[in-house]
Amino acid sequence: MSGSGPDDAVSGPGASRDPAQRPSAPRHTRFEDATGLLVGTFVVSFGLHLLHTVGAVTGGTAGLALLVGYAAGLPFGVVFVGVNLPFLVLAWWKKGWAFTLRTLIAVALVSVFASVHPAGLGGLDPDPRYAILAGNLLIGIGVLIVFRHSASLGGFNVLALLAQERLGWRAGHVQLGFDVAVVLLALTVVPPVGVVLSALGVVVLNTVLAMNHRPGRYLG
Q1: Global pTM?
Q2: What crossing angle do the helices spanning 76-95 and 97-121 adopt, rounded to 10°?
Q3: CA-to-CA distance for 95 and 3, rounded, in angstroms?
Q4: Are 58 and 48 spatial neighbours (Cβ–Cβ below 8 Å)?
Q5: Handedness of CA 4, 198, 154, 108 (dihedral sign)
Q6: Are 164 and 153 in contact (CB under 8 A)?
Q7: What is the pLDDT of residues 131-183, one digit of tens each?
C-alpha cells in the first residue's frame, strides 16, 4: 500500500516542493461549514435510503446500523446515533471539541434526514444493482463533503482520519478495511447476492474517498 505525503499536494512544472512557498488558502467560513454539513449529510442520508429500500448494507457504522436495524426491527436513525456514541468520545479525546461537535451534528443530521426521505419520496422500488451502486456513490460524495468541512460521520470515519493524520495512510484505504469486516458480517442477515452487490458498492464508496481525500491536497 502506497501512501501520499504532503508533497503530493502540489504538482506540475515549476511547482514548489517547499511547504513554506505554497500559496495559502482561505479557510471555510462558519456559514460555508454549516452549509457543507447540511449538503453532505443530506447526500449521505439519501444514499443510505436507497440501500435501505433494497435491504442492502454498506460499510462503517452506517452499515452496522443498517444491519442492526434489519435484525432487530429498529429505526436506522436511532441505531446510527447509538453505535456512534463511543466513537464520539474518541473523537473528543483525539481531535478536540470543535471536530467532535461538528461530527455529532453530522450524525444527528443524517439520522433526521433518514426519517424524512421515506415521507418525501413514498414507496420506491429501484433495481437493487442500481440502488446499491448509486447509494454507495452518493454516500462517498457526501462523506467527502463532510470531511472537507472539518467533520466526520463518526464511527470508523474517526479512526480513518486519525490513521491518515498520524500514520499517513489514506483514509479511504483504512475505511475499506473496516468496511470489509462489516460486509462479511452482513452474511448473517442479508442474502449472499445482496452481500456481493453491497461489497461492490463499498469499493465504489471508498474509491471516491481514496482518490479525493489525501493529506495536503485540499487547502480550504
Answers
A1: 0.77
A2: 160
A3: 22
A4: yes
A5: positive
A6: no
A7: 999 999 999 899 889 888 877 787 776 777 778 888 888 876 787 778 788 88
